[in-house]
Amino acid sequence: MTERAARVVADADVLAADLLVGGAAREALDHVRAHSWVTLVTSDPLLADAEAVVADLADPALARDWREKVAELGERVAHPPGDQPALACALHGEAAHVLSFDESLLTAGAGAAIRTRVETSVKRPDAFATLFDPASLYEAVGGGSYPGPDRDPRA
Amino acid sequence: MSWADLFERAEAYETSVVEIRERLREHRDD
User: Fold this and answer.
1) pLDDT digits (tens, 9 = 90+) for A103-154
2) Which of A22, A31, A45, A48 would be a feasible disulfide site paired with A85, CB 3.0-4.6 Å?
């Protein structure tokens, strides 16, 4: 296991659900917010998709403020326009995990096809939240003994 | 602006993962 294991992409549906719904999406992204050594990989197209959904279902001001905040949290990568943004982020950002609610990405067949091009695993947020083991991951990425969360996930 | 502030503001809106998926699909199809 490498640092790749601590790099996560959240598709635009998960990003929007984190803000507007809570539940599994927020639980999954709380792991990222609570650990500075876990990196959320994003891109402008991915954030633009989520911002558009938030603006549509809530309001544009909340969407703008959210985008400013999430940009602080994430590491942005560039990818060609027209690519599926979450998978492109995983490819160009070397992320081991993609969180999505998109059923077309979550089937076993889709997972196998994706892995021929990108070394990543697409998971539902609840699966990621359940499987996330910060102590073993921290040790695996070379951090030594896990000291516990190092950030306030609500700050 | 903190995450706590953003989540508090978002509580004014009721939506669901299904609705988010639909809007995202529409947005990406445009």
Assistant:
1) 999 999 999 999 999 999 999 999 999 999 999 999 988 888 999 999 999 9
2) A45
Is A21 in Cβ contact with B16 (below 8 Å)? yes
Q: Supply the range of the domain harboring residue B22.
A: 1-30
- Smallest Cβ–Cβ distance between A155 and the set B2, B16, B19 belongs to B2
- Chain B interface mutation, best of A20, A99, A104, highest count of B Cβ atoms under 10 Å: A20
ipTM: 0.97
Instruction: Write out the residues of chain B at the interface with chain A, using a CB-CB cutoff of 8 A.
Output: 1-4, 6-7, 9-10, 12-13, 15-17, 19-21, 23-24, 27-28
pTM of the model: 0.96
Instruction: Report the CATH number of the A3-137 domain.
Output: 3.40.50.1010
Q: Is the dihedral of CA A99, A101, A102, A103 positive or negative?
A: positive
Q: Where are the domains of chain A?
A: 3-137
